[in-house]
Specification:
Helix content: 40-55%
Number of helices: 6
Order of helices and strands: EEHEEHHEEHHEHEE
Strand order of the largest sheet: 2-1-3-4
Number of strands: 9
Strand content: 15-25%
Structural class: alpha+beta
Distance between the termini: 71 Å
Length: about 250
Amino acid sequence: MRKYEKYSIMVEYLNGEKENINLLGINTGSFKNILSVYHRIKKTYAEKVKTIDFVGVSSDGSIQVMWTKEIKPQGRQDLKQDINDIMANMSKEMLLIKNKNFYSFNMIDALTKKENIILHEIEDIHNLKFKNELDKNNEKIRLFNKLEDIRIEKRWHKDQLFLINKLSTEKIGGENINFTHLSNVFKVKHIKPIMKPLNMKVAKELKLYEEVVIKDQEKQILHLQKSYSRVVINPVENKLICYNKAK
């Protein structure tokens, strides 16, 4: 017999509060499944928690922390992300919500069919022959457990649909949220800032730098000081050198 009947994950937030991660819809009896969730939580909760515990639960209900992952603060690394990558991820997330809507709807239908088959098995159990009453009771327990798992998974999918439908009724610019539209909004090609190559002509247009031949020095200086923070006289070349300090 294996040591643990099921597994769970507990996190401790930066403020000291602890929480058992909601694992509805996930087979908690599968070490492999919960380990996959654990690795995902390490990434998504990295900036929110101090520790992540992988917990084993025995058949008698006793729990044992199998190992603890301490999260070292790394600062706001997310601020280093390129805006194009952020927008691409947002586009994928919007499309994922739309696809989850179809997925959960279809899964509820499929699980209902599976549930009905198990109910038929339960109805027919009195027609089956068993070696003894214990075997018959074990079969009832097996069917009950399967039914319970299906009901839990169905509830999870229903909750997902409820949240998606609730979110869909929120307004943006007076209209309901359209996840396909939002996905397309963020689905853009990489944007690069349009920069003009800097030369004397562009510098003059942008009021960065300009050289002017002196004709009426005082009048010219008064006029140029309206556009430039510095106006320097170059008597050697008989020019006024005008520029603005870099911002």
